[in-house]
């Protein structure tokens, strides 16, 4: 097995605010390989977006502060690299897509101009992207960049790409704009794509198309993807692997089929029980009592313990380590073994 | 066969084009001859994606907008023919819960002011004095799973789920029979959504409310509603029993929409 | 389901005091706003007590001491004396009252008229809006100082007339601000909710819209205080404001103008007082904007 594309080890992040310093990431462990789509799933405030932003160091410091840990991208620790080196990776080796496709395109420029800019910037690092002779003049490079832009629009399924380059963002629908942003993120031939709620603002039918596009991209280019979402359904339909986050911890992770069919952590199970399915009888939906813990003074031990139906005194003593339960499936719960034994008995 | 509580009869709405510097923009046909009947005590789901006209329809039912043609009848009476006083009385009986619990509560009012406001506005119908209103507000809060200790607080002190409960309490304050639920859970986390959906089921059983549930989330509609109507670009595409629509959608649009539902199960 | 009833709301303490503490915290983040608040505090202090604390109270009332004309700053007269031998420090201290009260009066009247016009225009819409706003624009086209001069000339000089004169050219700024804010607030979901409840237009305007547009009004009032004080002084300077012997910064500056190169101290103290007051109110206004209306900062 080759070296992973991205390896996050024991990442601790705090954010300072008026009320104090909140421990928002509490020992994140995540390994992403080429060809994998990792779903990072959890409810608001669990730290899933912060994890994504940390990878390309997009959090301003202060208020953010990395206590310890490492984020190795292709072997290099992003937290130790000078910020200029990290900036050079953004948009080239690491592509990012955000939730709102309207605010991430400049309304004053044509789509083509924005794509050409990105292509030229990417080409300054990797001249092979443009596919034109090394001594080419400015004009020729620009023309090549435009060709590439049109090819990218075509690849993300925008009909009539040549003509669409001259349109402004407001002339595109929400779904089409998100496709443009995906094209923009892919132009620099990234190895890792981080998509933060890319379909949340879109209609269900468009969402399905975008997710399909994302899956196709991974297959075609052999890249790694981190898909940040609050929707377990999206994860189930799109991802190869999933990490469930709660209050700054990854509580369960593994291949999607494993986690969805045999959820081991009580939080994952609670999350799944809260989603209405075809079989759910009226009034039988399981809500989750209590609230997300205050991360400035988090509860001792397992952060889910105050809301967990299985809590025993030992739960509040120490943060439970991730227990390997086979097939790459881990759960950070000290009762996971006995629970599984009980289920199989 | 009892009379339906709400009848939407061949309603169309056309927004005239705006006259601007460069001539007139095209008119927009938001609703094209929609007909729906909602029975008393049922949960009726209205499903549509963005631009389908579901917001226009909701606003028309609340009489915040007038349809271009067609009639909307509440208990057999055409809204367009009601006098000002009758319309005000109607407002006590048809209430709404909005999608965004953060935007739908006035940040400068306490929970008590928010929940008692409908009682103040409909003083003539409800006839509650100041103390009775406070008592009723406390009752309503406990009905939605909050407590009298929350009366003096401001909206910003509450989480999204708690705010939506306050919105539901406000909607119930004037004793309505029909509740329009405009995507009441789509801004909430799933665990909180589950609590609010359960609360809605519970309230319907206890108070005999009729729900008109507007959503783009098919899973939630399937869970809560007995009948569903699908609208697309202002037109009614398909209507029927929830089970039938989800198991055997007839139209292409319904098939596509239901096929695109991200179910929490591993695709085979 | 009832488990939520016992769950503590996110902010455990009572809302008001917590909100105040947070606002103070944000305000203190900026050193300049704190300096502004301190300056404004000093200015307000002299507004109330200036006349009583002046070292030569009889001169404030109009007494002259011709023997001590044009004395340079000394221990007895920190800012020297003027052409009548009056203590400049005493006059400036006492002048604070008139200048700041006049400025405050202008801003207050301007706010009331402007808010009323803007709120009605924004809320009613249609031709009411059109008529009121065109009238506002019309008022804006007349240079304010000239309008104030004309009004002061018609009504005759004096404190009250001066305040009225400036106010009548002051309100359009508020009308435009409030109209814009009301238009935005009218589209808020909680306003739609109030309409769905059946609340009357008056209730909607006064309970739901106006309380939510107060913050930008307060910010503008604070920012305007400085300019209002300047305008008051300007009218005093050209001689149609408060008449001597009542001390007022603009009048003081105007009188000392003729002796400027040789007896600079007679102009220095009122000039500095004006500078400090305007500077202080502007810094405070900026700080308040950060606290009350953070989105306006961009």
Oligomer: heterotrimer
CATH architecture of the domain at 1-93 and 209-268 in chain B: 3-Layer(aba) Sandwich
Cα radius of gyration of chain C in angstroms: 24 Å
Enumerate the strands of the largest sheet of chain B in spatial order, edge to edge or round the barrel: 8-9-10-5-11-12
SSE arrangement of chain B, N to C: EEEEEHEEHEHHHHEHEHEEHH
Estimate percent helicity of chain B.
25-40%
Please give the CATH class of the domain at 1-93 and 209-268 in chain B: Alpha Beta
Task: Give the second-level CATH assignment, the architecture of chain C.
Answer: Orthogonal Bundle
Number of strands of chain B: 12
Major sheet of chain C: size, sense and barrel closure?
A: none
Count of individual beta strands of chain C? 0
- As residue ranges, the low-confidence spans of chain B are none
Are there runs of chain C of 5+ residues with pLDDT below 50, and where? 1-14
- Portion of residues within helices of chain C: over 70%
Number of helices of chain B: 10
- Mean pLDDT across every amino acid position of chain B: 89
Descriptive overview:
The complex is a heterotrimer of chains A (345), B (268) and C (298). With 345 residues, chain A is an alpha/beta fold. Among the domains of chain A are: 86 residues, no CATH class; 81 residues, no CATH class. Chain A contains eleven helices and twelve strands. Chain A has an eight-stranded mixed sheet with strand order 6-7-8-3-9-10-12-11, sandwiched between helices. In chain A, helix 7 links the parallel strand 7 and strand 8. In chain A, helix 3 packs across helix 4 and helix 4 packs across helix 6. Chain A starts with 5 loop residues before the first strand and ends with a helix. Chain B has a domain of 153 residues: Rossmann fold. The radius of gyration of chain B is 19 Å and the shape is globular. In chain B, helix 7 links the parallel strand 9 and strand 10. Chain B is built from ten helices and twelve strands. In chain B, the strands form three sheets. Chain B has a six-stranded mixed sheet with strand order 8-9-10-5-11-12, sandwiched between helices. Chain C is mainly α and 298 residues long. Chain C has a single domain, classed as MetI-like fold, CATH 1.10.3720. In chain C, 71% of the residues lie in helices and 0% in strands. In chain C, helix 2 packs across helix 4. The longest helix of chain C has 37 residues. Chains in contact: A-B, A-C, B-C. At the A-C interface, loops of A face helix 1 of C.
């Amino acid at each position: 097995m080759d070296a992973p594309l991205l390896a996050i080890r024991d990442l601790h992040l705090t954010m300072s605010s008026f009320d104090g310093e909140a421990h928002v990431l509490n020992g994140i462990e995540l390994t992403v390989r080429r060809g994998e789509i990792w779903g990072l799933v959890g409810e608001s405030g669990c730290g899933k977006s912060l994890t994504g932003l940390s990878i390309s160091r997009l959090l301003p410091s202060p208020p953010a502060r990395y206590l310890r840990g490492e984020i190795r991208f292709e072997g290099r620790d992003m937290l130790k690299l000078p910020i200029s080196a990290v900036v050079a990776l953004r948009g080239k080796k690491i592509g990012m897509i955000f939730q709102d496709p309207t605010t991430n395109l400049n309304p004053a420029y044509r789509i083509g101009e924005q794509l050409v800019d990105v292509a030229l910037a990417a080409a300054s690092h990797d001249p092979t992207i443009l596919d034109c002779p090394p001594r080419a003049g400015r004009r020729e490079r620009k023309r090549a960049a435009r060709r590439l832009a049109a090819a990218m629009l075509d690849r993300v399924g925008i009909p009539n790409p040549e003509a669409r380059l001259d349109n402004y963002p407001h002339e595109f629908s929400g779904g089409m704009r998100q496709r443009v942003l995906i094209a923009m993120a892919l132009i620099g031939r990234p190895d890792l794509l981080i998509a933060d709620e890319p379909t949340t603002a879109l209609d269900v039918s468009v969402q399905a198309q975008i997710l399909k596009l994302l899956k196709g991209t991974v297959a075609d280019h052999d890249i790694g993807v981190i898909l940040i979402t609050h929707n377990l359904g999206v994860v189930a339909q799109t991802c190869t692997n999933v990490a469930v986050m709660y209050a700054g911890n990854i509580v369960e992770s593994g291949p999607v089929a494993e986690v969805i069919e045999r959820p081991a952590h009580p939080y994952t199970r609670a999350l799944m029980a809260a989603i209405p399915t075809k079989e759910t009888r009226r009034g039988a939906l399981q809500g989750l009592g209590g609230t997300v813990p205050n991360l400035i003074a988090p509860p001792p031990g397992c952060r889910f313990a105050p809301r967990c139906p299985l809590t025993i005194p030992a739960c509040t003593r120490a943060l439970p380590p991730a227990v390997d339960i086979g097939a790459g499936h881990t759960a950070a719960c000290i009762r996971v073994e006995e629970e599984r034994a009980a289920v199989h008995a | 066969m009892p009379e339906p509580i709400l009848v939407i009869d061949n309603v169309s709405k056309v927004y005239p084009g705006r006259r601007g510097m460069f001539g007139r923009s095209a008119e927009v046909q938001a609703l094209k001859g929609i007909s729906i009947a909602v029975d008393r005590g049922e949960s009726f789901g209205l499903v549509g994606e963005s631009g389908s006209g579901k917001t226009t329809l909701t606003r028309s039912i609340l009489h915040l907008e007038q349809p271009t043609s067609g009639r909307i009848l509440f208990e057999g009476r055409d809204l367009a023919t009601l006098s000002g006083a009758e319309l005000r009385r109607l407002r006590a009986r048809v209430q709404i819960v909005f999608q965004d619990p953060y935007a739908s509560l006035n940040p400068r009012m306490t929970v008590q002011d928010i929940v008692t406001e409908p009682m103040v506005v409909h003083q003539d119908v409800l006839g509650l004095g100041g103390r009775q209103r406070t008592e009723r507000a406390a009752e309503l809060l406990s009905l939605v799973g909050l407590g009298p200790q929350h009366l003096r607080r401001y909206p910003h002190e509450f989480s999204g789920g708690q705010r939506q409960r306050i919105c539901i309490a406000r909607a119930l304050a004037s004793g309505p029979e029909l509740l329009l639920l405009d995507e009441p859970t789509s801004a909430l986390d799933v665990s909180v959504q589950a609590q609010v959906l359960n609360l809605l089921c519970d309230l319907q059983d206890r108070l005999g409310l009729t729900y008109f549930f507007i959503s783009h989330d098919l899973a939630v509609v399937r869970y809560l509603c007995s009948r569903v109507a699908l609208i697309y670009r202002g037109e009614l595409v398909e209507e029927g029993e929830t089970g039938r629509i989800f198991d055997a959608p007839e139209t292409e649009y319904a098939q596509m929409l239901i096929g695109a539902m991200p179910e929490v199960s591993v695709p085979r | 389901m009832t488990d939520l009833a016992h769950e503590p709301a996110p902010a455990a303490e009572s809302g008001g005091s917590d909100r105040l503490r947070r606002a103070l915290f944000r305000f203190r983040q900026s050193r300049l706003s704190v300096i502004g608040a301190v300056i404004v505090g000093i200015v307000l202090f002299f507004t109330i007590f200036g006349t009583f604390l002046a070292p030569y109270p009889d001169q404030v009332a109009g007494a002259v001491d011709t023997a001590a004309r044009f004395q340079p700053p000394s221990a007895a007269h920190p800012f020297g004396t003027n052409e009548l031998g009056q203590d400049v420090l005493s006059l400036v201290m006492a002048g604070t009252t008139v200048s700041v009260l006049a400025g405050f009066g202008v801003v207050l009247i301007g706010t009331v008229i402007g808010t009323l016009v803007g709120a009605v225009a924004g809320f009613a819409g249609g031709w009411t809006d059109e008529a009121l706003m065109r009238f506002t624009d019309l008022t804006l086209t007349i240079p304010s100082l000239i309008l104030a001069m004309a009004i002061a000339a018609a009504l005759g000089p004096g404190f009250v007339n001066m305040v009225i004169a400036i106010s009548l050219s002051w309100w359009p700024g508020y009308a435009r601000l409030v109209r814009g804010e009301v238009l935005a607030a009218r589209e808020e979901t909680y306003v739609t909710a109030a309409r769905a409840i059946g609340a009357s237009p008056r209730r909607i305007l006064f309970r739901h819209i106006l309380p939510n547009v107060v913050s930008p009004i307060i910010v503008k009032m604070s920012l305007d205080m400085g300019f209002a004080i300047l305008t008051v002084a300007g009218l005093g300077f050209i001689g149609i404001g408060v008449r001597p012997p009542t001390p007022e910064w603009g009048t003081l500056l105007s009188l000392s103008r003729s002796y400027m190169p040789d007896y600079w101290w007679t102009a220095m103290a009122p000039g500095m007082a004006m500078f400090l007051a305007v500077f202080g109110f502007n810094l405070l206004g900026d700080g308040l904007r950060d606290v009350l209306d953070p989105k306006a900062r961009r």
